[in-house]
């Protein structure tokens, strides 16, 4: 998606440790016009009418998933990174390691919102090592639901996540795949 790549080159900031900051337009301050185009592109890449839910993980994926959901006309479910008193009933649970935060989270989804009848599309902002995406896939499988695919805004193609997901046979679509990143530049596939 050329519009996204141009925005990454213009406003993205490469930080030491293979960290790409896109907080000025994607995951802190959000450029809604750009994210609207991202949602439209995900719909184009996942034309299945079977999709009944979009699943993401808090917090950066929520806004992107919500805007994408308007093109699918389905609800968004987001996996929470902590149990709270207002999550009642039974839950699906997994552990996810965050590349950015260097922390392991207990991730949960209420069984009320994900079940065997669902056909799920996962939407998230980044794919690096694949831990978050594998965790979401685990929740979908625990629910007995069908995974229809995974839509990622930015994939770090030089890390293992994309390869691991593709090897499982899951339909993975990344809108911008970064081939390499140094402290002062990046290249796309």
TrEMBL record:
It comes from the Bacteria. InterPro entries: PRTase-like, PRTase_dom, Pur/Pyrimidine_PRTase, Xanthine_PRibTrfase. It is found in: Cytoplasm. GO terms for cellular component: cytoplasm. It catalyses: XMP + diphosphate = xanthine + 5-phospho-alpha-D-ribose 1-diphosphate. Pathway: Purine metabolism; XMP biosynthesis via salvage pathway; XMP from xanthine: step 1/1. The keyword Cytoplasm applies. One of its GO terms (molecular function) is xanthine phosphoribosyltransferase activity. Residues 23-156 form the Phosphoribosyltransferase domain. Its EC number is 2.4.2.22. 5-phospho-alpha-D-ribose 1-diphosphate binds at residues 128-132. It is an enzyme of class 2 (transferase). Keywords: Cytoplasm, Glycosyltransferase, Purine salvage, Transferase. The keyword Cytoplasm applies. GO terms for biological process: purine ribonucleoside salvage; xanthine metabolic process; XMP salvage. Xanthine binds at residues 20, 27, 156. Homodimer. Belongs to the purine/pyrimidine phosphoribosyltransferase family. Xpt subfamily. Converts the preformed base xanthine, a product of nucleic acid breakdown, to xanthosine 5'-monophosphate (XMP), so it can be reused for RNA or DNA synthesis. HAMAP family: XPRTase. This is Xanthine phosphoribosyltransferase. It comes from Mordavella massiliensis. The lineage of its organism: Bacteria, Bacillati, Bacillota, Clostridia, Eubacteriales.
């Amino acid at each position: 998606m050329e519009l996204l790549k141009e925005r990454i080159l213009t406003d993205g900031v490469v930080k030491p440790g293979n960290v790409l900051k896109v907080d000025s337009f994607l995951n802190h301050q959000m450029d809604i016009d750009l994210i609207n185009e991202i949602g439209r592109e995900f719909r184009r890449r996942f034309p299945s009418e079977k999709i009944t839910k979009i699943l993401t993980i808090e917090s950066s994926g929520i806004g992107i998933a919500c805007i994408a959901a308007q093109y699918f006309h389905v609800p968004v479910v987001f996996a929470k990174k902590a149990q709270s008193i207002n999550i009642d009933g039974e839950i699906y649970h997994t552990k996810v390691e965050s590349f950015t935060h260097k922390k392991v989270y207990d991730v949960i989804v209420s069984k009320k919102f994900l079940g065997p009848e669902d056909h799920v599309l996962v939407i998230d902002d980044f794919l690096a090592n694949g831990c978050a995406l594998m965790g979401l896939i685990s929740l979908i499988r625990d629910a007995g639901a069908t995974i229809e695919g995974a839509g990622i805004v930015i994939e770090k193609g030089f890390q293992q996540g994309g390869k691991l997901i593709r090897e499982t046979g899951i339909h993975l679509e990344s809108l911008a795949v970064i081939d390499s990143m140094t402290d002062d530049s990046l290249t796309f596939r």
